[in-house]
Specification:
Layout lengths: L3 H12 L3 H20 L3 H12 L6 H8 L1
Helix pairs in contact: 1-2, 2-3
């Protein structure tokens, strides 16, 4: 798993929601994380990832690649 697309599919399957719903949740998460990162708050970005998607900080790099 190494793309945002993979994460969206994972969330969709894991949470038994549609692809569109999962994509919306991932996009919202990325927007919140981007705000935290631009403020220099990496810990908050990790917390947002865990809160929105229930994922470990290992996935942060994948989402950041898409953001920046």
């Amino acid at each position: 798993m190494n793309t945002v697309e993979d994460i969206i599919q994972l969330i969709s399957r894991r949470d038994n929601i549609s692809y569109i719903e999962a994509m919306n949740v991932v996009n919202e998460c990325m927007e919140e994380m981007e705000s935290a990162i631009t403020m220099g708050n990496w810990q908050e970005a990790e917390d947002i990832l865990a809160s929105y998607l229930g994922l470990e900080s290992d996935y942060l790099d994948i989402l950041m690649t898409e953001m920046f």
